[in-house]
Design a protein that fits this description.
This protein is mostly beta strands and 364 residues long. The chain is 11% helix and 34% strand.
Length: 364
């Protein structure tokens, strides 16, 4: 009886030792996210993993011809050698644990181990677009705004590498620029490239309102004469009060950084110097509030106000008034159709005897 027990115990010990030598692990398989528009939340990010690339790790120095390797979603599937995963497997969570099985071809021996699949995020940068510098010898700084320190940066100008390697680049000449940002983890290096163009322009401010003429070409058509936001007799580049609110544009630089174009105190998406209602609000006049829906729209738009509406004006991004049939259901509710308008952004201005207000409308 003792001999039998000793034999069984020895067999079990040998079984464990044999199996521990068959499958190496646990293993970790890291790769880079392939979604350049990732929102930074990695929990649901999924990519395709090539599980066959793990074979040499799970086998170690053992001869591959003597073993069969398979991968499974659960430990039960691995133990019973059922439901093998495809070699090109897309993870369903991040991180995700799967199970590898190594079977010895010359016997019934097998062993299993765990494998953790991890998707690492790409660097989060967005520099696409056009920037400008003045032709008077000025410079501008481009910042990739890194969130961590384990990054490297490679900058190019017109395809040639620059010596700079930091997260920011000081630019003093026009051209086509690009940056390759690489984020390092324990075993991966995830890279992304973004490019931008620097234009050299005349930084003339004809009306000395704090907004250079170049930026007062609101419709970006190269013609300053047809940009007239407040619909007076002066184009914006000649008008010190672009929105006709009684406050000079330069005085609507509320954050005092010398640039009125980045002041948006009502968070409307429109700079204050183009919105007369902001000044009226600041000066403690009664503000005309209204609701406009649906927005975006491609059909009927309804406007409701808590105050009497005496007038409504609609402008396109060029500052030109758009003629639409306005139908009044009551003194505080009106509607109109945008079916005949081109897709784009429009500005809706409603007025009464006391004040006015402007909102942005998106036509799909």
């Amino acid at each position: 009886m003792k001999q039998t027990l000793f034999f069984l115990l020895s067999t079990l010990l040998c079984w464990n030792i044999t199996y521990s030598q068959i499958a190496n692990g646990p293993l970790v398989y890291e790769t880079c996210d392939d979604n350049v528009e990732s929102d930074g939340d990695l929990s649901n990010d999924s990519v395709q993993f090539d599980l066959s690339s793990l074979d040499f790790q799970i086998l170690g120095s053992q001869n591959p011809s003597g073993f069969t390797v398979s991968y499974h979603l659960t430990q039960i599937d691995a133990d019973n050698n059922i439901n093998p995963l495809p070699i090109l497997y897309t993870n369903t969570s991040n991180p995700e644990t799967i199970f590898g099985r190594v079977s010895e071809n010359s016997s019934s021996n097998f062993d299993t181990t765990t494998i953790t699949l991890i998707v690492n995020n790409l660097p989060n940068i967005n520099l696409s677009g056009d920037f400008f510098i003045c032709n008077t010898g000025s410079t501008t700084i481009i910042d990739t705004n890194p969130a961590e320190t384990n990054y490297t940066y490679e900058w190019t100008l017109n395809g040639s590498f620059l010596p700079e390697s930091s997260s920011t680049l000081t630019i003093d000449q026009a051209g086509n620029y690009a940056v390759i940002v690489t984020k390092y983890s324990n075993v991966t290096a995830c890279s992304i490239q973004d490019g931008f163009t620097i234009q050299e322009i005349d930084c003339i401010d004809t009306d000395s309102d704090g907004v250079i003429d170049f930026e007062e070409d609101l419709n970006s058509n190269g013609n300053l004469e047809d940009d007239n936001t407040d619909m007076d007799s002066l184009a914006n580049y000649l008008d010190n009060d672009d929105d006709n609110d009684g406050i000079l544009t330069i005085d609507e630089d509320y954050n005092n950084n010398g640039d009125p174009t980045d002041d948006d105190t009502d968070n409307s998406g429109i700079p204050d110097y183009l919105e007369s209602n902001v000044a009226l609000s600041i000066l403690s006049f009664k503000k005309l509030n209204f609701k406009m829906f649906p927005n975006p729209s491609n059909d009927l738009v309804t406007i409701k106000s808590s105050n009497t509406i005496s007038n409504i004006l609609i402008f396109d991004v060029q500052g030109k008034q758009v003629d639409l049939e306005i139908i009044k259901d009551s003194i505080s509710e009106i509607y109109f159709s945008v079916k005949d308008l081109k897709s784009g952004i429009y500005f809706i201005k409603i007025q009464n005897n006391f004040t006015q207000s402007i909102k942005k409308l998106v036509v799909e």
